[in-house]
Structure formats: C-alpha cells, structure tokens
Amino acid sequence: MTRFLLIRIGQGIIVLFLMSMLVFGMTRLTGNPAVLMVPEYATQEDIRYWEEKLGLDKPLPEQYGIFLSNVLKGDFGASLKSHRPALEVFLERLPATVQLCGSALLLALALGFLFGILAAVKRGTSLESLFMILALLGQSAPSFVVGILFMYFFALRLGLLPAAGYGGISHLILPVITLSFYFVAAITRLLRGSMLDNLGRDYIRLARIKGLKERTVILKHALKNSVIPVITYAGPLSVTMITAALAIEVVFGWPGIGRLAFDATIGKDFPVIQTTVLILCAALVFVNLIVDILYVWIDPRIRFWK
Amino acid sequence: MWRSPAIIVGLVIIAVLLVLSIGAPYISPHDPLKVHLRDRLLPPAWMEGGSSTYPLGTDPVGRDILSWIIWGTRTSFLLSVLLVFITAAIGTSLGIMSGYLGGRVDTFIMRVVDLTMSFPIILFALMLAVIRGPSIMTVSLIICLTIWAGFARMARGETLRVKNNEFIDAAKVMGVSKFRIMLRHIFPNAMTPIIVLGTLNIGRTALFISTLSFLGAGIPTTIPDWGNLISMGRDYLLRAPWVTIIPSVAILVVVLCFNMMGDRLNEYLNPEIRTKIPVR
Question: CB of B251 within 8 Å of any CB in chain A?
C-alpha cells in the first residue's frame, strides 16, 4: 500500500510538472511573454522590467527555472486590473466558489443516490421513466442555459428568489440547484446502471433467500458494490464541475473564481488567468489522487500494486 | 431500430440542421452580421410589437436572430460533427494500437489517456483566449485534446476483447501485417460501441463549444454562434428574453437529440442492457 501511495504521489508530481511546462510553453506563443504581464498602456520601462524579471535574455531552460521558482514562491505577477498580486485576488474569491461547489456536491450526492436507487428498485414503473427523463435533460442542458432559464422564470418572472448576487441562503439556492443538476443526472444514471447490474447477480438472490429484509439487501449489499463506478467517474466529474461552476458564476454574478476568470478573459488580464489555471489544475490533480486512494480503499478487489 | 420514435425524430432534426448549415447563405433572410440600429431588440413576430421582417426578433444591436441562428448551426452543429469525426479517428487508432501492440506502447498511451480524462484542458482555452484571442482553431484544438481519450479507452477495450479470436490468429498465420490486421480485422469488430460514443460526444462537443463561447473563450463574436448570442443577450434578459431564450432552446434541442439517439443506439446495439434483469 505504501508503495502504491508513493507511486501515485510521484505521478501526481509528474503531472504538475508537465502542466507547468505547458503553461510556460503557452506564454512563449506570443513572441514576448513580458507583454502579457503588463497593461496595454505600459511604458517601455515596464516591459523591460518584466523582460528582466522573466530572464528573457537567458536560455530557455533557465527561463523555465525562473518561472517555476516564481510560481513556487507564490509570485504570479500583479493583476493588470486591480494592480494587486494575482494570488491575493484569487484567494479572495476562493471561499465563494468553495461554498457554491460544496453545497452543489452535497445536494447532487443526496439526490443522485436517492434517484439512482429508486430508479433501479422501481424498475419498469413511471417513477423510473420520470427519473430517466430528468437525467437525460440534466446531462443535455449546458449549465449556463439551465442557469439562465431558472433565473428568468424563478427570479425575474415569479420573483421568488434573488436573480443574482452574493448574500444569504436565498442567493445560494438557484446557483446551487443549477450546478447540481448535471451531477444529479450523472450520478442517477451511473448508479441506476450499476445497481441493476448488481441486483441481477447471485449474491443478491442468496441474500434474499437467506431472508434478509429487502431494505438491507438493497442498501447494504447491492449499494455497496454499486458505488464503485460512481467513484471511477469522480475524477472526470470534478473537471466538469469546475467548468460548469465557471459558467454558472458568470450567469448569477457569483463573486467566485469563475467570475474572476471570466472578467480576466474578457479584460485580457493574463497574470490572473495564469494563476487561476495553475491553481485549479493543481487542485484537480490533488482531487484525483484522493479519488484513487479512496477507490482502492473501498474495493479490496482492486490492487494496483503486487 | 428504425421504428423507434427517438431515432426518427433525431434523424429529422439532424437532417434539418444539415440543410440549414450548408444552405445558410440561401436560406437565411438577412445577413446575420448586418446591424439595424433602428430595429434594436424587436420581439419575435408572434409577440406584440414584432414584425414579420424579423421572425424571431432582433438582438441588442438590431441583428436578425433567425439569420444568426441559421448561420450559427455551422459552429454549433456542423463543427461539433466534424470535430468528433476527426477526434474519433485519432482516438480510435491510438486505442487499437494500444490494445493490439500491448507492452510499453499500451502503458504509455493509457497513462496519457488517464491524464487527459482527469485534467481540465478546457481551462487552457481561457488562457489561450487571453494570449491569442478567441478563435475557431483554438476551440477545435482544445476540444480534440479533451475528447480523444474516451475513444482511445473504448477502442482499446474492444481490441482486447477481439484480439484473442481465432480469426485474428488465422490472419497472423497467413502473414497479414500488423497494420492490416488492426485496420481490416480489429477495427470493423470494434466499431459499434465507438459509433455510440461518437453520437454521445457530438452532443457533448456542442455543449463544450457553447459553454466556451459563453465564457468569451470560444467562437469570436464576429462569427454567428448560439453560445455567443446567449452571452450578448444576457444583460437584456428581463427586457428582451427572446435574445437569450431562443438560442438556449436551440442548444438544448441539439444536445438532447444526440444524447437521446446515443442512448437508443446503445440499447439497440447492446440488448442485454434491457433484458439482463427481469422486472420484479
């Protein structure tokens, strides 16, 4: 197990390394990376300052070294808009995004498991069809489209909830429902599929013959084995969650990373975009590491080491 | 399969989209980029104040929404189909190679696949948009890099299933080259699930493109696209909801259509999904 952990952590570090090379490579696409770090109205001296700081007169490997040491020191340059360190701007917006994604994740897990189990158990009923139609819709609608439609009907038309902004629980409801929509759909479909697969197996028949309560058979025996495919998809799903959250924050004017990334894209604020991409990628590498460990821990049949 | 209403409806929608995207210059009533400042934010013809000159109304600078939607099929539908075809070809070739050749090639390709699948390549689109400005090329590149891995993994799995069959051994004994075995013997037998995956991925790609366009990192606003129309109309949601709601519904229909067809195709091609478990 220790060996597996070490290998897996090593791989994570390699991925982070590759990612930093990719970001570094991209900044060299323009010809002069120093221009990316300064506002449009910058003087020649400003540009020369950055050329020197990035070491542009030195050979490429050395430039990469400088880039990496700046990143590790947390020096991502200053936001072109607010003239404050990009990292500071990023960290300031982080709590709002964590709040949004965290709430959506909890809701998606709760509803996804409920719908997935019910759809499998109530197979062939109209309840199953209803869940499956909902799931198909949830996986087909782009998150920002759902967000705009929800906002139009529930906030602007019916006036039930605030349309946008940041504040109490009432501001949280629409964005969280929108964000969790896709994931409820994904979890419902995955769980229903694997539940149906497991419910047809012999060990479930044995459990029933043994006289176990149906509830125990479903929740303890079948469910336990059915969670695994859901965990397999946790990695790709977390990637989707980040992109969906970006778009939803823009729709609802949520002051998180998504809104920050959007403003930075529109305003060509390169230092902020670079910070956002680097940190989010690193976070996802970490999430994937956790998922892999969880995966092995939950299913003793899976062994990546010998 | 041809009796399934989902498949028929899906095919009809695809046929319509195909005609619209290819015949856009002849079908669309106006130049989608032509600004009519006097006719800003006109509602669709069926609403009060609408005019039949602009059947679906106009956007904040008075461009005809119907024409924008028709031209938008090129980026929102045709581009997705093309990208999925190209990417499926690349991903499938790599997957078959990985499965058939095995060894180091296999380990390497599969590591890259795992990496791609859990990596937010889409975020790099934002960065490229800042560095080089949004463009169709950037979007296409990012999407190819995102979706190829699914095809590779699927093709590898199918190859492993097929490769131990006797007809493969027979081909080997007859001295057929490795390349020819992969192309003529393995590929045709691995194709079915790849078609399903491709169908589902067209919907996913359309979803990606529109999300990127909405975020200002996709199709530039000088090219008609459904995602960027939504983004332009968003500030007028209360005053002129049609500007956003019409393209939203269009995207929803396209993605839904491909997802539904993919599902049905999957059920049809893998009947055991339906029949394996008896209804209790």
Answer: yes
Crossing angle, helix A143-150 and helix A234-252, to 10 degrees? 40
A239: which chain B residues are within 8 Å (Cβ-Cβ)?
Answer: 118-120, 122
What pLDDT is attached to residue A33? 78
Contact residues on chain A for B119, CB-CB shorter than 8 A: 15, 19, 239, 281, 284
Closest CA to A291 of B74, B172, B114, B59: B114
Provide the Cα torsion B193, B194, B196, B199; round to 10°: 180
Number of other CB atoms surrounding residue B271 within 10 Å: 9
What residues of chain B lie within 8 A of the CB of A248, using their CB? none
Inspect the interface and report whether the beta carbons of A265 and B279 lie closer than 8 Å: no
Chain B residues near residue A200 by CB distance under 8 angstroms: 276-278
Give residue A241's pLDDT: 86
Contact residues, chain A, for B122 at CB < 8 Å: 239, 243
Min Cα separation B11/chain A (Å): 17
Q: How many CB pairs under 8 A join A and B?
A: 136
Nearest Cα neighbor of B178 from B187, A198, A171 is: B187
Predicted confidence at residue A104, as pLDDT, reads 93
Task: Tell me the torsion sign for CA atoms A223, A225, A226, A229.
Answer: positive
pLDDT higher at A163 or B195: B195
Question: Mutate which of A16, A144, A157, A214 to disrupt the B interface (most B C-beta within 10 Å)?
Answer: A144
**CA nearest to A111, candidates A144, A138, A147, A145:** A138
pLDDT, tens digit (0-9, with 9 covering 90-100), for B118-148:
677 778 888 888 888 888 998 999 999 889 9
Q: Which residues of A64-83 are buried (b: 16+ CB within 10 A; e: fewer)?
A: beebeeebeeeebbbbbeee
Confidence band, pLDDT 50/70/90 cuts, at residue A302: low
- Predicted ipTM of the assembly: 0.82
For B277, the closest of A15, A141, A196 (CB atoms) is A196
* Average pLDDT over every residue of A274-278: 88
Q: Two tokens at A301?
A: 């049949």
Predicted confidence at residue B19, as pLDDT, reads: 93
According to the model, what pLDDT value does residue A176 have?
A: 92
